[in-house]
């Protein structure tokens, strides 16, 4: 009897479900879209009156300009400490310094929490997010996570007034304790189909510091003081009405330590580093989005500005157009076209880059350094490196004796040595970069502990560099001397030819003139004679 009743119940349930599905299908297919939206809205409102639970959603990205939501990161960090105890499905990843695994909630997982007697549930889910793709006519579908907090409406005041603030404070505190500095790079257009963000990152673990940076101690102290002053100048920048940012231009020959300087600055201030590759940026609008995705306490780096796109020297070339020859202009135009082709047809303009540095959008973040590096400062547009954009210009030149002593301490652990006096005049007279000096000081074998060998290697390299420089200078002097002699000979020949030509012209002109005069006189005499004879005939 009971079995029959259960069978009847399941039959009725199945029939009801089939009817509901049929009605839903008819509703979706034959009802107009506006009517469906209208009915759905009021059905949800009616269900809301009967449901005693409330929900609060925190999305990974904000709706405005797709910025990353800081609240999401803080809350996710807070939940990760509790999920290992409550959640059933977890995901693991390597933590700071690769020491241990960090557990966090898996997608579509539920975790419970309790606060002042209120029972709460957290859900983590995914939702599609539309982002602008590398194609102008096609949008790339991307997914964004979001957290949902569900609780009974009787706890509304506790949750909105106390619990959420408690979660944010705990999450931010844990973020600061476990903070690991990161090195970011912007994703190229080819990666936009699979990347969820404009930036991708790795852990930043560069060992460079100002202590082992080979440069003049006074200049080093000046840079350190400038960085300390900037990091503590929040109120000052607000008082003078400027965005809390500062620009640094590092210039000098290759191998003089520009990249090492940036790493030392990041380690000194504990800032993240954003390495911006301009050739991977499609437009000025994308450049603005990249700027919005950066964080406070960061260094934005654009290396080798003289090689980035074709943005350098444009305004200067327009000023000096009258002085440049037509042939030189054609060569520059051809070079610019080739550079544009090699940069994936990027539409970033000089104006867009200038606005990126100090336009209105540059004030969206605070405590940020913008660093440019270049091997040839004269190639950069003056508007790009003027004071106010690049506030401090730092020249990193060839290694001097003070820089050598720092390298000797770093590589050989030497404060003094009898060969230092032999190295002092050589290194001051020779142009050798710190990278070359360091390479010569580095032991070439594992068992090579004798510092004398390394110092002698450096002395030999310096002497060879000095001799090569001398030979080049002599060769250059010979070429210049021959060029000057050839120029004088050509000038003398031209003067001789001009003199002969002028003399020939004058002789020719004189001969023609004399001949013309004599012929004219002869004709005149003949006319006179004929006139006289005619007169005689008339008289007769």
From TrEMBL:
<dbReference type="InterPro" id="IPR003960">
    <property type="entry name" value="ATPase_AAA_CS"/>
</dbReference>
<keyword id="KW-0547">Nucleotide-binding</keyword>
<dbReference type="GO" id="GO:0016887">
    <property type="term" value="F:ATP hydrolysis activity"/>
</dbReference>
<keyword id="KW-0460">Magnesium</keyword>
<dbReference type="GO" id="GO:0006950">
    <property type="term" value="P:response to stress"/>
</dbReference>
<protein>
    <submittedName>
        <fullName>AAA+ ATPase domain</fullName>
    </submittedName>
</protein>
<dbReference type="InterPro" id="IPR003959">
    <property type="entry name" value="ATPase_AAA_core"/>
</dbReference>
<feature type="domain" description="AAA+ ATPase">
    <location>
        <begin position="244"/>
        <end position="400"/>
    </location>
</feature>
<comment type="similarity">
    <text>Belongs to the AAA ATPase family. BCS1 subfamily.</text>
</comment>
<dbReference type="InterPro" id="IPR025753">
    <property type="entry name" value="AAA_N_dom"/>
</dbReference>
<dbReference type="InterPro" id="IPR058017">
    <property type="entry name" value="At3g28540-like_C"/>
</dbReference>
<dbReference type="InterPro" id="IPR003593">
    <property type="entry name" value="AAA+_ATPase"/>
</dbReference>
<dbReference type="InterPro" id="IPR050747">
    <property type="entry name" value="Mitochondrial_chaperone_BCS1"/>
</dbReference>
<feature type="region of interest" description="Disordered">
    <location>
        <begin position="477"/>
        <end position="540"/>
    </location>
</feature>
<dbReference type="Pfam" id="PF25568">
    <property type="entry name" value="AAA_lid_At3g28540"/>
</dbReference>
<dbReference type="GO" id="GO:0005524">
    <property type="term" value="F:ATP binding"/>
</dbReference>
<feature type="compositionally biased region" description="Basic and acidic residues">
    <location>
        <begin position="319"/>
        <end position="341"/>
    </location>
</feature>
<dbReference type="Pfam" id="PF14363">
    <property type="entry name" value="AAA_assoc"/>
</dbReference>
<dbReference type="Pfam" id="PF00004">
    <property type="entry name" value="AAA"/>
</dbReference>
<keyword id="KW-0067">ATP-binding</keyword>
<feature type="region of interest" description="Disordered">
    <location>
        <begin position="314"/>
        <end position="341"/>
    </location>
</feature>
<dbReference type="InterPro" id="IPR027417">
    <property type="entry name" value="P-loop_NTPase"/>
</dbReference>
<feature type="compositionally biased region" description="Basic and acidic residues">
    <location>
        <begin position="477"/>
        <end position="500"/>
    </location>
</feature>
């Amino acid at each position: 009897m009971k079995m029959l009743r259960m069978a009847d119940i399941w039959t009725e349930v199945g029939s009801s479900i089939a009817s509901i599905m049929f009605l839903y299908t008819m509703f979706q297919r034959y009802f107009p879209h506006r009517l469906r939206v209208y009915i759905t809205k009021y059905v949800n409102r009616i269900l809301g009156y009967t449901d005693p639970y409330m929900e609060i959603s925190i999305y990974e990205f904000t709706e405005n300009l797709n910025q990353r939501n800081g609240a999401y990161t803080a809350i996710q960090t807070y939940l990760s400490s509790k999920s290992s105890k409550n959640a059933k499905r977890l995901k693991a990843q390597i933590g700071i310094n690769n020491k241990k695994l960090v557990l966090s909630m898996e997608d579509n997982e539920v975790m419970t929490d309790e606060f002042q007697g209120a029972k709460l549930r957290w859900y983590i889910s995914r939702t599609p997010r539309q982002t602008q793709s590398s194609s102008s006519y096609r949008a790339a579908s991307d997914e964004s996570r979001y957290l949902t907090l569900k609780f009974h409406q009787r706890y509304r005041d506790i949750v909105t007034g106390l619990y959420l603030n408690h979660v944010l404070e705990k999450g931010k505190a844990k973020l600061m304790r476990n903070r690991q500095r990161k090195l970011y790079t912007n994703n190229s257009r080819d990666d936009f189909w699979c990347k969820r963000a404009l930036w991708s990152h790795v852990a930043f673990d560069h060992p460079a510091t100002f202590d082992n940076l080979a440069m003049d101690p006074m200049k080093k102290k000046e840079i350190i003081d400038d960085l300390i002053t900037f990091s503590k100048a929040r109120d000052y920048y607000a008082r003078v009405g400027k965005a809390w940012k500062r620009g640094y231009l590092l210039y000098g020959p290759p191998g003089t330590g520009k990249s090492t300087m940036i790493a030392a600055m990041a380690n000194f201030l504990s800032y993240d580093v954003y390495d911006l590759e301009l050739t991977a940026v499609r437009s000025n609008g994308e450049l603005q989005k990249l700027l919005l995705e950066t964080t406070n306490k960061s260094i934005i780096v654009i290396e080798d500005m003289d090689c980035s796109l074709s943005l350098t020297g444009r305004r200067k070339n327009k000023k000096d157009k009258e002085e440049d020859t037509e042939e030189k202009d054609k060569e520059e135009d051809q070079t610019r076209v080739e550079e544009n082709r090699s940069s994936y047809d990027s539409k970033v303009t000089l104006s867009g880059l200038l606005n990126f540095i100090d336009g209105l959008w540059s004030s969206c973040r605070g405590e940020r350094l913008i660093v440019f590096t270049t091997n040839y400062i004269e190639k950069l547009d003056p508007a790009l490196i003027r004071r106010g954009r690049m506030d401090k210009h730092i020249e990193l030149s060839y290694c001097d004796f003070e820089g050598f002593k720092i390298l000797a301490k770093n590589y050989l652990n030497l404060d003094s040595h009898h060969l230092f006096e032999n190295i002092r005049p050589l290194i001051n007279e020779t142009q050798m970069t710190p990278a070359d000096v360091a390479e010569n000081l580095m032991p070439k074998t594992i068992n090579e502990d004798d510092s004398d060998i390394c110092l002698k290697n450096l002395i030999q390299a310096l002497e060879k560099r000095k001799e090569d420089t001398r030979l080049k200078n002599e060769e250059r002097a010979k070429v210049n001397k021959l060029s000057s002699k050839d120029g004088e000979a050509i000038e003398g020949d031209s003067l001789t030819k001009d003199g002969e030509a002028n003399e020939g012209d004058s002789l020719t002109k004189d001969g023609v003139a004399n001949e013309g005069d004599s012929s004219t006189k002869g004709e005149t005499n003949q006319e006179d004679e004929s006139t006289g004879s005619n007169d005689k005939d008339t008289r007769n």
